User: Fold these one by one.
Assistant:
Number 1:
Amino acid sequence: MAPLLEITGLSVSYGGIRALDGIALFLEKGEIVTVLGANGAGKSTLLQAVSGLVPIGEGSIVLSGETLNKLPAYAIVRKGISLAPEGRRVFPTLTVEENLNLGAYTRQGEKAEVAQAKDRVFTLFPILKERKRQLAGTLSGGEQQMLAIGRALMSAPKVLLLDEPSLGLAPILVKQIFDIIAAINAQGTTILLVEQNAHKALTIASRGYVLENGRIAASGLSHDLKSDPKIREAYLGGSAFKKKQAQ
């Protein structure tokens, strides 16, 4: 059976600079898969390419057997891929509820389904329900991240793309965000997670890929990546990670 999402030979260039070079990865239905890498490795570019936000030079992106390469971003959302971008990118002068409504812009005429999606978001993020009439720009960083994820869920995606969801958050909020990601996945949403907190990402994901300079340098089961000395040294704090495992 074919994977839910399959990326083959994906290359993206900015001018003369190749940001992604021959990327191949896949997601099975129901998985959380993480993409790790240093700043500038190409992680965000990968999610933007899958979302139709940057043009693809070579390769293919296939969802449920359908090639998405030449579709505009809104059509890709309609097909079942939604992105919660790095930096949250909420609309600060709109209310929480208006931001969520924009997440359902591809679902015109699906009033009941959109209401159901909003109820799901409010169940996952009760604070958003409390603040649904509050301007998004007045929310805390953690609340804005919840709103960005909630907005992405409003299109009822088959695959949810998360770009650095824990970036800039306090440790207690990081735990909360990862618990919610696990809950979203448990409800049946497949997730591709880009995350600099490699330990947290590999704890929640079943598999992972490591990007270096636009290429996949390593891939495998999360447990195997955690155990790899090179991965541990580069992304998991080396000896500090060993001590944590021993405790």
Number 2:
Amino acid sequence: MKAVISGVCGYVPPDVLTNADLEKMVDTNDEWIVSRTGIKQRHILKGEGLGSSDMAAEAVKGLLKKTDTSAEEIDLIICATITADLFFPDNANTIADKVGASNAFGYDINAACSGFLYSLWTAAKMVESGAVNKAVVVGVDFMSSIIDYTDRTTCVIFGDGAGAVMLERDDSGNGVIDAVMRGDGSGRHYLNMKAGGSLRRPTVENVQAGDHYVFQDGRPVFKAAVTGMTNSVNELMERNELNTHSIDWLVPHQANIRIINAVGGQLGIEPEKVMVNIHKYGNTTAGTLPLCLADYENQLKKGDKVILTAFGGGFTWGALYLKWNYNS
């Protein structure tokens, strides 16, 4: 018995921030952004009283409708996010309340851009073991809430969005097969939010200094991302006797088109097998992988061999191998 994905749904807020809009806000231009990141626009959550749980709830509601599942049937919700509504309580139980999943328990996983990957592997093992029957894994981030829109090195990259998948047990031979998960805490110096936690508690001074915004040192992050994602996919393929020709789809974290192309190129995977939607959404952090699955759902076929891979701040990275379980 394996945990299979029985449905997927994505959600992005309606407001769009284009490269032309950013040209009016910071010293940049469309050619510079597209050539370096591949991003043409990103969606931004606007409105009083809205948080990341609202985007996640919309994705979950869509998922329940698509899979003809009542909210009361859900046993577990895991939410991957670095932008929870509040420091505590967790987003997952807030989402459960908003969608009416009254029989579910939940918790959040904070692994930055690798959060959905980590969460999917965790939930799959719980479903496979029989501990829960139906699990929902949500990847969501409200990145515009922690971005400095005077910093062109970060503000052009990130967007807001959410995606969710349903996991159930099945004996068809499809489902989540294997995963490689890695981490290196020394990477925390290159990609982080400097203040707001227990190490540097909120003060007027560090708020004024902008230390509650995302900080990224691009070069070491780029190098580590390409190396980490490529190595984890290679390890996964080797131990599952896969090769680049037997893989139907590579689903890479949508961080930067140069990273996506470098990983696909080093692995030798044909570009048409690599899922890409960064041009539409930017980097939605924990939301990128499920949003890719949602966008490409109609092209996925039952039995397709799919590898997901991600890299995030911390550093965190890994790859997951699954066989798709249904035709749309």
Number 3:
Amino acid sequence: MPDTPARPRKILTLNAISARGLARLPRHYIVGGDIGEPDAILVRSADMHAMAIPPSVKAIGRAGAGTNNIPVKQLSARGIPVFNAPGANANAVKELVIAGMLIGARNLVGALKFVETLSGNDEALHRATEAGKKAFAGIELPGRTLGVIGLGAIGSLVAEAGIKLGMNVIGFDPAITVDAAWRLPSQVKRAESVEAVLRQADFVSLHVPLIDATRDLIDAARIAVMRPGAVLLNFAREGVVDNAAVIEALDGGKLHAYICDFPANALMGHPGAVAFPHLGASTQEAEENCAVMVAEQVSDYLENGNILNAVNFPNVELARESAYRIAIANANVPNMVGQISAILAAAGLNIHNMVNKSRGDMAYTLVDVDSSVSDAVIASLAAIEGVLSVRYLPVE
């Protein structure tokens, strides 16, 4: 049966998704946490790796940036895009990084714990406070150097905030995009390596995804080149820092503090480690922004086949100039466009407009034709070796 926008779409939610985001879905959509045969799934933190994802699913929307909880490779093999919301929670994370810098600079956690140990009348508290506060003397941020590793949406905001706080900022990102480069303040000094950042920075803030290349990015060898007494901040992903190496560095005085968003047994109770309960995106505004972005992306894909911010597909957008559209996901192999065009031509279908883009092993094609497309043509396209999914999206 053709996948037509006139048919009610069904959206399964695995977590509570902001009502403001769900309101961006078309009115004919059916949304809920107990939906059978869904067209798409919206998720925040729920682990989908052990989940049996129904054959009806055409898209996954992650209301956040990271997709570690989603079996992206498995979904790619089925021709299913996994959308996320990069940058939607950037301000929330930036603000928590600033809080982390202040906590590390001013020894605030230790100071609060000290106050909790005090007892007696107000006069006794005052005497104990004056006697003990010297142990928590800190530093100020202006004039200090902030190193930012990863200069995407969040890293760029952190760098800008550091400049506004009077800090010298140095950044490194081997894969910085053109858009990110334009966002980056001109005062940020560009480093040529991770080590170049670590050698110069009093505060180091990490903003990289967790992939094979970034696992244990900060290990014992790299900590060894850091400035003595530096503060390390990790609000990216738990696995980019070797916790054992951090504890050794804290014990030896190499690091002054490790501030992160990922509690772990190795860190619990250590006076130099502060771990928040994964609060980076936990603001009302961030949750709403993420939900709005991913709802709009998923609905545009379901209705028009357009792709924006999918972690496993190229960005592809084609303005509607015809009522008859075909969306094809396929392996990135030679002569795919030629085979598609040949099948359409043999069926007497004139191509009004077409766009094809690739990303790694994945390619995606949108084709607008001038007349309706039969089920037989869709079946022929689906039978092409390397085609992963075919969707017919007429406007009725």
